[in-house]
Specification:
By secondary structure, this protein is mainly α. The protein has a single domain, classed as Arc Repressor Mutant, subunit A. 58% of the residues lie in helices and 12% in strands. The chain has a three-stranded antiparallel sheet. Strands 1-2 form a two-stranded antiparallel sheet. Strand 4 and strand 5 form a beta hairpin.
C-alpha cells in the first residue's frame, strides 16, 4: 500500500468520524455510486474459518440494541441487504435469521407491512412470485430504513 492510499484512508476516516451513523451511511452510499464501487462484506475471521452468519448478525443486533420485534426485523433486514448484499430479500429468510437468535417474529408479513406503512416507509415490497397465500414477496430497506438502523447503531454504542 502506497503513501497516497494511506493519506486517502486517513482523510476519509477523519471526514466520516465527525458524522452521525446515518450520515456516514448516506456518504458511503454516495461514494460507492459516484465512483462505481460495489461494496460487499468480506467473510469475517472466525476461529480459523469463515464466521457463521448468525454470529455476525448477533453482533449487529447486540450493537443496535433493538427494543421490539419491528426493530429486530429492521436490523436483520439491514444485515441481509447491506452486509450480505441480498436485494431483494424474503420475509422467510429474515425470520429464519432472527429465529437462529431466538428472536423470530410471530407474523413476519404483518411486521414488514407495518414498517412499509410508516411515513417515511422503512421497508418496501419490490417483487412478488407466485399467487395467493403461497406467494413470496421480495423486500428491500428504503433509505429511511437504512438510516433508522444507522441511528439505532449510534444509540446502542452510546449506551455502552
Amino acid at each position: 500500500m502506497g503513501e497516497a492510499e494511506l493519506e486517502a484512508m486517513a482523510a476519509v476516516k477523519g471526514a466520516l468520524e465527525r458524522l452521525s451513523p446515518s450520515a456516514r451511511a448516506r456518504v458511503w452510499q454516495w461514494v460507492g455510486e459516484t465512483l462505481e464501487i460495489s461494496w460487499r462484506a468480506r467473510p469475517l475471521a472466525w476461529h480459523g474459518g469463515e464466521r457463521p452468519l448468525s454470529a455476525a448478525l448477533a453482533d449487529l443486533v447486540f450493537d443496535a440494541q433493538p427494543r421490539n420485534g419491528p426493530e429486530h426485523a429492521l436490523v436483520a433486514a439491514y444485515f441481509l441487504q447491506e452486509c450480505q448484499g441480498h436485494v431483494p430479500w424474503g420475509g422467510g429468510d429474515l425470520n429464519d435469521a432472527l429465529k437462529e437468535l431466538g428472536r423470530g417474529l410471530g407474523n413476519v408479513t404483518r411486521t414488514l407491512s407495518a414498517l412499509g406503512a410508516r411515513r417515511p416507509a422503512l421497508v418496501m415490497q419490490v417483487s412478488r412470485t407466485g399467487r395467493g397465500t403461497q406467494a413470496r414477496n421480495g423486500y428491500k430497506l428504503t433509505t429511511a430504513g437504512v438510516e433508522q438502523v444507522g441511528d439505532m447503531l449510534g444509540r446502542g454504542s452510546a449506551r455502552a
